[in-house]
Amino acid sequence: MEFRRLTDDLSVSPQIVVKDLAAIRAAGYRAIICNRPDGEGPDQPTFLEIEAAAREQGLAASYLPVESGKVSDDDAAKFGELMRELEKPVLAYCRTGMRAATLWGLSEASSKPAPEIIGAAQAAGYELGAITARVANGGKAPVRVAAASHDIVIVGAGAAGLATAASLLARDATLDIAVIDPADTHYYQPGWTMVGGGVFRPETTARAMAAVLPRNVHWIKAGVAAFEPANHAVILEGCRVVRYRKLIVCPGLKLDWGAIAGLAETLGRHGVTSNYRYDLAPYTWQLVREMKRGRAIFTQPPMPIKCAGAPQKAMYLSSDYWQRSGRLQDIEVQMFNAGAVLFGVADYVPALMEYVERYGIGLNFGYNLTAIDGPARLATFRRVLQDGTVESVTRDFDMIHVVPPQKAPDFIRVSPLADQAGWVDVDQTTLRHKTFADVFALGDVINAPNAKTAAAARKQAPVVAHNLLASMGRTSGQASYDGYGSCPLTVERGKIVLAEFLYGGKVAPSFPSWLIDGKRPSRLAWLLKERMLPPLYWRAMLKGREWLAKPEIVG
């Protein structure tokens, strides 16, 4: 007998028999729901038999039979009523458990977000993809009317989405393109490290979405609930349907603040900050300016994360300020990194280590932040020892810069587009989906083994633009993405180690070494980061101008 947990209050299972009731009671269940009509199978006990055995065990038993594949809105409503009335926890069953899981999903749809429901069912081994639209519509069978239809639909209006839209239009201005994104503001996120270091003002990293969208692009200001790639459809929140000929998926990733116990309650207070949020980066700079002595901790979660160098950038810029202001000798700087190395591309580590030693930074590898107590100023880390045992380590702090764990957005992770880890499953060279030929993806959401940086998106956008048009017969040849990523590591105010690399960590400098030696700190690289990259982002990348980003075309 197999109990599959959906929530603390409900588990589902395949068909049970009379002799199972004692074990069900022993497992702590207080009630059962039968969702299988009597007589479906020759080896199936009747509900009356199950009910009598349940009564002997002190279990309540309810009968809500549903034909396979015919779960009605009324059935789901009745299931919800039973769940409100019965003593918890409850075990619901049918032939396989699928009907029970479906009834639960539809009954919860008006109070829980669709990705949460679909994800819980997936974790229990049940795919609810066939009812995604109903779940997104609050549990009711939707009237499937297309809200819109476009040749090309782009999900996500971040750096990747807008750059791809602009690159497409630069190739063919007649294209019918729609961008789906609910946000009012577009952010230049690479600038937030500089905000946290007192170099940029926060408002210079933000612009109204309407001001940066390419001309002639339709803006669908809504959130995405689900994908139906077999039907060439995107389901919006509220169950509106947008149809497409070609789909580009680039919604970025999810910062999982809730994965660290206590973090959400204390962010922006008690010395707890993060440059990974627009409104918190100024607090980083405030803490750095005000800190005179004590312990400053900088954390880095397990990979993958957006801009793997960002946790270090905050640490180096802070340490540089404290050194310049004569305070560093009174401040203990510690880095707690869940990984095993300082930086993933070994060629750049020697230059970084010079600054680690210069600032007297303590490096702690294999430490994953699991909890924060802001008022007590305590951080708790999990560490796996060599013998496989796990220890919990707590450190006090006066200031802590936290980088949260990161994963694909919920509506991506539970979609048909995702791989087992939840990222969009693409060919790492063409950026075309491995299963659905009319779907392309780029940016932080894909499963290609490249760094998740704006520089990567800048190189990926022209590749997607070309390959998508080739798939429509509007151009020829195939463009290839080589895994390029760049991470300007701000090691001090005025100097940067410019890390540039391809798949496999192969160093790939854009400039001759006599101009910028990426393996050494450079003032010219700082000027590139401070003065050139922001206008390059706003005026070139988001405008379809592919300076140093034109893809190589084969065939």
TrEMBL record:
<protein>
    <submittedName>
        <fullName>TIGR01244 family phosphatase</fullName>
    </submittedName>
</protein>
<dbReference type="InterPro" id="IPR036188">
    <property type="entry name" value="FAD/NAD-bd_sf"/>
</dbReference>
<dbReference type="Pfam" id="PF04273">
    <property type="entry name" value="BLH_phosphatase"/>
</dbReference>
<feature type="domain" description="Rhodanese">
    <location>
        <begin position="75"/>
        <end position="130"/>
    </location>
</feature>
<dbReference type="InterPro" id="IPR029021">
    <property type="entry name" value="Prot-tyrosine_phosphatase-like"/>
</dbReference>
<dbReference type="InterPro" id="IPR015904">
    <property type="entry name" value="Sulphide_quinone_reductase"/>
</dbReference>
<dbReference type="InterPro" id="IPR005939">
    <property type="entry name" value="BLH_phosphatase-like"/>
</dbReference>
<dbReference type="InterPro" id="IPR001763">
    <property type="entry name" value="Rhodanese-like_dom"/>
</dbReference>
